[in-house]
């Protein structure tokens, strides 16, 4: 976890950074029910197969269900959008005998399915009806390639140098079975059934070409749950995301996305995702007083303001001392250690999910953060910050990294393309 963290929680369409929205709030059932009268067409021919027509006067969707992200674009969806209420992360390994040809066919199927589901349409074949009656609900689907994918498909010469294995860190207790993978898919939505519907459809699309390596489920606060837009909180109760890079910052694209003309060329406008399952030792954390917790983080728990004073947005005064001459923000406070200006300018865009995978027989919760961070180069983003944390972060005794992955996420697919086409057919 870092202080340059989660984008602010959304409570309205205006708060969705970079997310195109539908112009109105009509549901897929309304669209289907009125298509004959208005000539409106949803996607490819036959998109409505298996869906019963609704009365022409069906009730429009709420703003939550009507939210829609675009599949085609310069960047893949699911990177710059605000936090989503429900998420699924899933990694696949290509099956024995599956090669570049099968991988290309799989990415083509996945892209077609993602485009349909993100538009609020049913899957083309064997739709499960899980998302029937719901709108797109801001669904995003993002695809990435792991280091091993390039060996499996004979594309080693196209493997980016940035996909070098991450170094080992002192807080790592990694489960190899839940780490890495040939292919990675991130699913996010503002409705749990819509997110699960996408997960199930993509799993079925994998067919005989790939098998699931691992899968994780996450959540965030639902849009509209707070009286006004605010930065999200994590399961420790801390406001988490104050210093996340902003898309309107002049150096945002340089820090987060691979530029046109970068190497390899198929990664133009893409990014690299570091994925970590970080267990929070909540029983230990909750034994601390609020003051002790604030010293660990370096910010007030109530409003996220730095201990040096001001509001959440106030710049932290790292040199301020109290009457006894001690630093107000402790030298090992998490917010101090992770500041970009304390790490050579290293920056990454975080879009994590919280997770809770049950309670053990001794009452200890298996809960924490599905950490996902985006950067143009993990060797200049995630790695230097995590090394700094290794050397002295007060929060490290309350967290444990249990799974890890690094994935190359290519730029968005143009109309008529599938994700990864420039790699697989270049």
Automatic annotation (TrEMBL):
Domain Dyp-type peroxidase C-terminal: 231-413
Region (Disordered): 1-25
Protein name: Deferrochelatase
Cofactor: heme b
Cofactor note: Binds 1 heme b (iron(II)-protoporphyrin IX) group non-covalently per subunit.
Ranges for domain Dyp-type peroxidase N-terminal: 76-220
Compositionally biased region (Basic and acidic residues): 11-22
EC number(s) on file: 1.11.1.-
Pfam family, any one: Dyp_perox_C
Family classification: Belongs to the DyP-type peroxidase family.
Organism: Streptomyces actuosus
Taxonomic path: Bacteria, Bacillati, Actinomycetota, Actinomycetes, Kitasatosporales
Catalytic function, reaction form: heme b + 2 H(+) = protoporphyrin IX + Fe(2+)
